[in-house]
Amino acid sequence: MKSIFFFCLLTGTVLAQTPPKRPIAPSDILRLQNITDPQVSPEGSWVAFALSSVDKEKDKRNSDIWMISWDGKQSVQLTSSPDGESSPRWSPDGRYLSFVATRQGDKDSQLWLLDRRGGEGKKLTDLKGELEEYEWAPNGKTVALVIRDKDYSDSAKTKIRTPYVIDRRHFKEDRKGYLDRRAAHLYLFDVETKKLDTLTTGIYDETSPVWSPDSKQIVFVSNRTADPDKNENTDLFVLDARPKSSLKQLTNWAGSDNNPVWSPDGTQIAYLRSTASTNFIMYDQPILSVISATGGEPKLVSAALDRPVRNPRWSVDGKSVAVLVDDDRRTYVSAYDLASGQPNRLAAGDCAFADLEQNPKGGWVTLMSKPQLPAEIYAVENGNTRRLTTIQDAFVAPLLLASVEGFTSRSKDGTQVENLLFRPANAPTGQKMPTILFIHGGPVGQDNFGFDLARQILASGGYAVAGVNYRGSSGRGLAFCKAIYGDWGNREVADILGAADYLVANGIADPAKLGIGGWSYGGILTNYTIATDQRFKAAASGAGSSLQMTMYGSDQYVNQYENELGLPWKNTDKWLKVSYPFLKADRIKTPTLFMGGEKDFNVPIAGSEQMYQALKSLSVPTQLIVYPGQFHGLSIPSYQTDRFDRYLKWFDQYLKTSVAVLGTGK
C-alpha cells in the first residue's frame, strides 16, 4: 500500500475512487431520460428515436431526435433545439428523417425534414390546424397527414376568452379540455410541390393511416356510427390515395377494430379486434386478427391465448405477425405463424417490452426495461435480445435500487393474486419492515417486471413496497379482468387485503406499520380500502374519487357509468353502493394525504377535495395538495419530485420508519 502511495506522489497520478452508491431520491426524477418511438431506417442500419430530458431552468422536459447504429457502436444526436422534436420517421429512400416540432413562432406543430448527411432541419409544412399523425407513402412522394380542424371559436380581440359552446354528449376530456365538434381528417401532402389535398371530410374523426405497399391505398380507423360519443366502436376503412375517392368499410364488428398494418405483399391487413362486441369495452383484451385487403371474414389469430396483445408488426416474408403480449407481470414478444396459427416466443423473461418495429433485414427493434434498469432500445434476433443503447447506465450508476421479486397471495374467497415486492437495498434480513401497498391505476393494466420509478423511490425511504395485481388487472385472462364490472371497491379490496395478510404472515411487513397509496384508480382503491379496514396507519390518495355519483357529468367517463352502473336517477342504490368511502367516511381512521391536478378532467380534483373535507370534519389527520395547471398526469418536473417528497414525509410521519439504518441519511 505504501509503495502505491509513494508512486502516486512521484508521478502525480490520482487514483479515482468510486463514490459509494446511494438510495434513489425524488430529485433523481430530474436526471432520468426517457426513450420513445424507435424507428428502423429503410436499409436496416440505424434506429432513430426521441430522447427527452429535463431542462431544470425551464422546469420542463425537452425531446430531441437521436439515432443509434444497428450494431450499437455509434450514436448521433440529430437535433438540439429547445423547442423539442418528436415522432421521427425515415423517408422511404433513407435520405431524410422527418419529425414534428413547433418552432419559429408557429402556433401549430409542423412537419420538419432533416437530411441525415448533415445540416439544419427545414420546415416542410405550413398547416392550419393540429397535426396529430403522419406517415410516408412507400414511394416517398407523398405523406398522409391527420389534421384536426383549426379552432376559430375564440375570435375575441381582448384577453377574455369567448364562452365555450357545447352540444356534445362526450364534452370534456383530460388535457384536451372542453370538446367541440372539430373533426380530425386525412390529407395528402406532396413533398415536392408542397400541395395539400383533402381525402376525407365530414363530422367523423379518422386516425391511424397506413399505406399499402404500392402507395395506392390507405387503410385507416374511424367510428362511423350515428353518434360516436355514445359508443367505442371503430372499424377499418380503405380508400384510394387521391382526392374524392370513395371509402370501403373492411370490418363491421360492433366493438373496436384498430391498429391496422398492411402485409408486405399488400393482400392482407393485420389489426387488433376487441374481444367484446358491446359498445363499452374497457374490461377487454385485444385479439390479433387478419383480414383480406378486399374485406371478408377476419381470422382471429390469437383468440385462444386469453391474453391482451398489441403492436402488431408483419415479418419481412409476410408469413407471421409479431405482437407484444401482456402475461402475468411480464410483457413478451411473440410471433404468430399464420399458416399454423401457432405462436412462437421471440423474447421473454422477467422484464417488460414496449414498442416493436421490423428491421427490413430481419429481426426487430423494441424497448425493454428491467426491474433495475429503465427502458433501453434492444434488437431481437434469432430468439436473442441485444442491447443497443446504454443511455440509462449513467442514471443507475450511483444508485442503490430495491430488489424486485414476485409473490402470490390468496384473497378471502380463495382467489390467487400475483404481485410484486420491492425490498429496499441494504434492508436488514429477517426483520419486519414498514410496508406500503402502492396500488396501480387503470384498473385494466398490470404491475410488471419493468422499471418502476414510483415504487423504487418509496422503497428508498426504507419501506418494503408491494404492487398488487388485483381483480380488474390485465395479464390473467378476460374473466379476471371483468370480475369487477359494475362492482367497484369489493373484490379489488379483498385482493389488496389478502396481499397485506401474506406480507404480515410471512414476516415481511410490520403489521403496526402498514401504509397504502396510489394514483388514479390506485387512489380510488386507496379510498375504498381505508373505508373498509383500519389496519393502515397512513395513506396517500392521488387523483381519486369516492362520491361517485358526483363524477357523472364532471369527468370523461359517461359511457362507462351508464353501461356499468346505469343512470344515477334510475339506479341510485347501485351508485350509492360504490360511493361508500364518502358515505361511510366516519369509518376511516387512517391519516390520509390527498393529491390531484387542478385541471384534471379524468378524475377531477373534486374527488380529492370531497374526501379531504370529510376527514377534516371528522378530525382525521389529512392534507390536500393541488398542483396548479396540471392534468391527470403531472408533467412539470418540479411537481413530480414534490409529489414523492410529500409521499415520503407523510409515510415517515405516521409509520415512524427508522430509515437511517437503511442508509438514506434521513
UniProtKB/TrEMBL annotation:
UniProt keyword annotations, A-Z: Acetylation, Hydrolase, Protease, Serine protease
Residues spanning the membrane: none
InterPro entries attached to this UniProt entry: 6-blade_b-propeller_TolB-like (IPR011042), AB_hydrolase_fold (IPR029058), Pept_S9_AS (IPR002471), Peptidase_S9_cat (IPR001375), WD40 (IPR011659)
BP-aspect Gene Ontology terms: proteolysis
PROSITE patterns: PRO_ENDOPEP_SER (PS00708)
Entry keyword Acetylation: yes
Pfam families per the UniProt record, alphabetical: PD40, Peptidase_S9
GO molecular function: serine-type endopeptidase activity
Record carries keyword Metal-binding: no
All residue ranges annotated as the Peptidase S9 prolyl oligopeptidase catalytic domain in the record: 451-656
Job of this protein: This enzyme catalyzes the hydrolysis of the N-terminal peptide bond of an N-acetylated peptide to generate an N-acetylated amino acid and a peptide with a free N-terminus. It preferentially cleaves off Ac-Ala, Ac-Met and Ac-Ser. Also, involved in the degradation of oxidized and glycated proteins.
Name of this chain's protein: Acyl-peptide hydrolase
